[in-house]
Specification:
- The complex is a heterodimer of chains A (318) and B (305).
- Chain A is built from 15 helices and two strands.
- With 318 residues, chain A is mainly α.
- Chain A has a two-stranded antiparallel sheet with strand order 1-2.
- The two termini of chain A are 13 Å apart.
- Chain B has 15 helices and no strands.
- In chain B, helix 4 crosses helix 15 and helix 12 packs antiparallel against helix 15.
- Chain B is globular and about 75 Å long.
- The relative contact order of chain B is 0.12.
- Classes of the chains: A mainly alpha (318), B mainly alpha (305).
- Chains A and B meet through helix 2, helix 4, helix 5, helix 6 and helix 7 of A and helix 1, helix 3, helix 4, helix 7 and helix 8 of B.
C-alpha cells in the first residue's frame, strides 16, 4: 500500500482531506466530544497536578506554595532514582523480552506450526499464550504470590519434589530475589499481546515473498530478518511503544506482589508516587514524582512517534 | 533459546527441496512432510504453552480442595473430591452475580462509547487530516501515558462536586477517555490509508461527511472496530485502582475489586482464594473464547494499510 501512494504523496505539499471538496477545518467538529472529555478527565487533573508540585499539601488544609522545594528534594532522593533503575528492569521484562520472543513465537506459529500442523493447532497455542492477558493483574498477582510464597507455596514444593530443595527461597521477601522474581511474572503476563498482534500482522504478508526468498536459497533466519521483521514493522512500533509506556507506569503487579519492598528493591515510580499520595499523605511530593514520570513517558512517546512518522514518510518517498 | 531447533529444522528440509519442486506448487502437499525439526519446534511451542498455562492449572485444582486437603497434600496434589464449599462461600459473601453485572455494565458501556469516540477522532485526524494532527494525537495519547494515581485526587473532587462520586458513570467516563486514546492512535493510522477511491465515489454520489462516515468508513473498518471493542472490554474489566477509589460502596464494586477487597478476610483460606481467582477469570475467559475468531480476523483486516 505504501508503494502505491508513492507517486502522489511527495508531490502534494499541502495535504488535503481524503474526501474531495471538504475543507480540513470542517472536520474539527468530530474532535469536539473526544477533546472535551479529554480536557475534563486528563488535562485539568494534569495541570492541577503540576501546580501541586510547587506546593506542600497533605490533603486536608489547602495547598501551600513552596516553590521548587519538592523538585530539589526529588533530584536528591535516592529512592526516586532507585525506582527509575528498577524501571529499566521492567522495560527488559515488559518490552524487550516479550517483543523479541513474541516475534519469534509469532513467526514460528504462523510460518511453521500453522503450515505443517494446521491452523487449528496454531490458534490453540496462540490462545494459550494469551491467557495471562485476560487475567486481571491483581488476581494474577494473588495467584503468583501464592505460588511464590515461602510456606507451602507451589514453586518451593516443586523444587523440593525434584530434589532441588536447597534452592527453596522466600522469593518475594528476599531483597536479592524479589525483583528477579517479579520479572518472569511480567514476561508471563505480557507475552500474549505481541504474539497476537504479530500473528495477525503476518497474515497480510504476501506468501509469494516467502516462496521467492526460499527459491533464492534464503534460510528461515534470513527470511525472518528480511521479510517478517520488515513487513510488520508498523505493528512492532505499536507494540514497543505501548509496552514501553506500560512498563514505565507499571503499578498493579508491584502493588499486589511486594508493595515495592523489601526495602526499595522492587519500587517503581508509579508505586512510589502512590505511596507518597496515599500512605505518607505527602500529596505535593507524590504529585512531583508522578509529574516527573509523566514527563519521561511523554518524551519517550513523542520521540518514538516522530521516528515512526519519519520512517513511514521515507518509505512512501523511497 | 527457542530459535535453535528451527534452524536445524529448516536445514533438514532444504536438501529435499531440489526434488520437491512440484510439491511447492501444491502447498498442501507440503503439510504432510514434517521433518524431525518441525516436530521439535512444535514440542517447544507446546512446552511454552504448558508453562504459561500452569498457574491456571493450579488455580483450577486448588479451587476444589478443602483447606484440610490442601494442608496435607500441598498445592500440587490433585483434589480427591469436588469440594465446593469455598467457592460457594465466596460467591455468597460477595454477592458474585451483582459484581459480574457491575463489571459487565461498566466494561460494556466503556467499550461502546470509547469505540465511538475513537472513530470520530480518527475520522477527523486520519481522513479529515486536520492541521497539527500529529500533535493532537500526542495530546490524546497523554491519557494513556499518565500514571493513574495522578487522576485520583482531582477527579475525586470533580466527581464529588457533580454528584457522581461512588457512581458507576464516573468510572465509565474516565475509562472511555483512557481507552479511546489507544483507539484513536490505532484507528487514525488505519484511516490515513483508507482507500481513496471509495471516499471519492461516495462524494460524487452526493454523500456528506456524516453519511460517508456511517455508510463507507464504518462498515469497512468494522473488523478493526470490533477488535478495539473486545480489547476495551477486557482492559476495563481488569482495571483496579480507579474502580477501587471511585466505587466505594459494596453494591457498586467490580469483580477484581471485590476479590481483592476480601484478601485477608476470615473466610479467605488458601482454597477459597484460589476459588475466587477461578470465578474472577471465568467471565473474561468466556468472553475471549467467544470473540477469539473476531479478534484475529479483525486485527488483520485493520492492519491492511
Amino acid at each position: 500500500m505504501a508503494s502505491t501512494l508513492a507517486p502522489t504523496a511527495p508531490r502534494r505539499r499541502a495535504p488535503s482531506a481524503l474526501i474531495p471538496k471538504t475543507s480540513r477545518r470542517s472536520y474539527w467538529i468530530y474532535l469536539v466530544p473526544g477533546l472535551a472529555m479529554l480536557t475534563m478527565v486528563i488535562i485539568v487533573p494534569l495541570v492541577w497536578n503540576v501546580y501541586l508540585t510547587f506546593t506542600s499539601y497533605r490533603g486536608i488544609r489547602p495547598p501551600e506554595w513552596i516553590g521548587l522545594e519538592n523538585w530539589a528534594r526529588l533530584f536528591a532522593d535516592e529512592t526516586f532514582w532507585a525506582s527509575f533503575r528498577n524501571s529499566i528492569a521492567m522495560i527488559g521484562a515488559m518490552v524487550v523480552l516479550p517483543t523479541l520472543v513474541g516475534l519469534v513465537l509469532a513467526a514460528l506459529l504462523f510460518d511453521l506450526v500453522g503450515k505443517k500442523f494446521g491452523g487449528k493447532m496454531a490458534s490453540f497455542l496462540r490462545a494459550t499464550y494469551y491467557l495471562p492477558q485476560i487475567l486481571p493483574s491483581v488476581i494474577a498477582a494473588i495467584v503468583i504470590g501464592w505460588i511464590l510464597r515461602p510456606q507451602n507455596g507451589a514453586l518451593n514444593a516443586i523444587l523440593d519434589g525434584v530434589g532441588l530443595g536447597a534452592l527453596q527461597n522466600n522469593w518475594l521477601g528476599d531483597p536479592d530475589t524479589a525483583l528477579l522474581s517479579i520479572m518472569p511474572v511480567l514476561v508471563w503476563i505480557q507475552i500474549g499481546y505481541p504474539v497476537v498482534i504479530f500473528m495477525a500482522a503476518l497474515q497480510r504478508v504476501d506468501p509469494e515473498l516467502y516462496e521467492a526468498a526460499e527459491l533464492d536459497g534464503a534460510n528461515w533466519y534470513q527470511r525472518f530478518g528480511a521479510i517478517t521483521v520488515g513487513m510488520i514493522r508498523p505493528e512492532i512500533f505499536v507494540v514497543v511503544l505501548t509496552c514501553t509506556i506500560a512498563a514505565l507506569k507499571v503499578f498493579g503487579p508491584v502493588y499486589a506482589l511486594t508493595g515495592g519492598g523489601p526495602g526499595t528493591s522492587t519500587i517503581v515510580p508509579a508505586y512510589y508516587a502512590y505511596s507518597q499520595f496515599f500512605q505518607a499523605q505527602q500529596v505535593g511530593y507524590g504529585a512531583t514524582i508522578a509529574t516527573a514520570l509523566t514527563a519521561v513517558i511523554a518524551v519517550v512517546a513523542v520521540v518514538f512517534i516522530l521516528v515512526q512518522t519519519r520512517l513511514e514518510r521515507r518509505e512512501e518517498v523511497g | 533459546m527457542a530459535t535453535e531447533p528451527i534452524v536445524t529444522g529448516h536445514g533438514a528440509s532444504t536438501p529435499g527441496q531440489g526434488q520437491g519442486a512440484p510439491a511447492r506448487r501444491a502447498p498442501s502437499a507440503n503439510r504432510t512432510h514434517r521433518s524431525a525439526g518441525d516436530w521439535a519446534v512444535l514440542a517447544v511451542a507446546v512446552l511454552i504453552g504448558l508453562f504459561i498455562a500452569f498457574p491456571f492449572f493450579l488455580i483450577v485444582i486448588n479451587s476444589f480442595k478443602s483447606p484440610a486437603e490442601y494442608s496435607t497434600g500441598g498445592p500440587l496434589a490433585l483434589p480427591t473430591g469436588l469440594y465446593t464449599d469455598g467457592l460457594v462461600a465466596f460467591w455468597e459473601r460477595v454477592n458474585f452475580p451483582e459484581k459480574v453485572w457491575n463489571s459487565v455494565f461498566i466494561s460494556g458501556m466503556v467499550a461502546v462509547l470509547a469505540v465511538l469516540i475513537s472513530m470520530f477522532n480518527a475520522f477527523a485526524l486520519g481522513i479529515g487530516r486536520v492541521k497539527g494532527r500529529l500533535w493532537i494525537v500526542v495530546l490524546i495519547l497523554l491519557a494513556n501515558m499518565l500514571p493513574q494515581e495522578v487522576l485520583l485526587y482531582p477527579l475525586y473532587f470533580m466527581f464529588r462536586e457533580v454528584g457522581l462520586y461512588d457512581n458507576v458513570w464516573a468510572v465509565i467516563i474516565i475509562f472511555t477517555v483512557i481507552q479511546s486514546a489507544f483507539g484513536t492512535y490505532l484507528l487514525a493510522s488505519v484511516y490515513s490509508t483508507f482507500p481513496k477511491e471509495l471516499l471519492e465515489a461516495a462524494s460524487i454520489d452526493g454523500a456528506g461527511r456524516w453519511r460517508i462516515l456511517w455508510r463507507v468508513v464504518y462498515p469497512i473498518s468494522r473488523p478493526t472496530l470490533s477488535v478495539l471493542l473486545i480489547f476495551f472490554f477486557i482492559w476495563t474489566w481488569n482495571e483496579f485502582l480507579i474502580p477501587l477509589t471511585f466505587l466505594v460502596s459494596n453494591a457498586n464494586q467490580t469483580v477484581p475489586v471485590a476479590i481483592t477487597a476480601l484478601q485477608g478476610d476470615r473466610i479467605m483460606d488458601v482454597t477459597t482464594t484460589s476459588g475466587s481467582a477461578l470465578l474472577g477469570l471465568i467471565p473474561t475467559l468466556v468472553f475471549f473464547l467467544i470473540f477469539q475468531r473476531t479478534l484475529t480476523r479483525g486485527i488483520t483486516a485493520g492492519a491492511v494499510k
